[in-house]
Amino acid sequence: MKKIFILVFISLLFSNIQAQEKTFQSPNYDIIKKEIQDKSSTYYYPSLMQRFENYDSTLTLEDYRHLYYGYVFQKNYEPYWRFSEDEELLEYYRKKELKEKDYQSIIRLVNKSLKEFPFELNYLNFMCHIYKLKGDEAMVNKISKRLYGIIQVITSSGDGKTCETGFHVISVSHEYLLLNYFELTMKSQALVERKCDYLALEENKAKIEGLYFNVEKLFGMGIK
């Protein structure tokens, strides 16, 4: 599928990886868990998720941080989730050319996938593509802002230079999505200390040899 819509936003974030000095904030899962379970908190999870599902444009970076990393404490979180109707949706995803009659079926399937896993970024981007084809710029903007918010959270969680400062992700698919948008190609992959994925990269303009992604939550580490 063509990577079209959030590249303008992503290009603003790409400089973060290359920066000599970068301020980042790795997630404090203990604090996040406490705040998303507090009904009096601004970050109470059911309320945040309702705003997220409604494409609330006032959601802040901290809101997105609690949504994304707070999801690991939700009963529906499955680290290696796969959409129940994946094959049907992938048939559309792989098509070289989509027809107008396909649009609603794709939107329906993507919305269903988001009910199962709200942070399925590849399919969310696919839906953005469909709304672009439909000429619905309002929805394109809403979806783009959601994608931007989530990716900003990931890229602000580390610098990717070491395992200790790796980008924190709650799904392996998010590693590959970032490489795709940054136009980087993976050469090899290795698990480091059962905590980080190290993706060695093919030669690239940014001269980045590899990136670390913290995947400890995929192994249930620290989740209580």
How many strand segments? 4
Gap from first CA to last CA: 38 Å
Strand content: 5-15%
Tell me, rounded to a whole number, the average pLDDT.
87
Overall shape: globular
Radius of gyration: 17 Å
The SSE order reads HHHHHHHHEHEEE
Figure out the total of helices.
9
How many domains, in number, for the residues? 1
Percent helix: 40-55%
**Helix and strand composition category:** alpha+beta
Low-confidence stretches: 1-20
Strand order of the largest sheet: 1-4-3-2
Largest sheet: 4 strands, mixed
Tell me about this structure.
The chain is 47% helix and 9% strand. It has helices spanning 7-18, 29-36, 45-53, 61-70, 86-94, 103-116, 121-134, 137-155, 172-181; strands at residues 167-168, 186-192, 196-201, 210-214. Mean pLDDT is 87; it is low at 1-20.
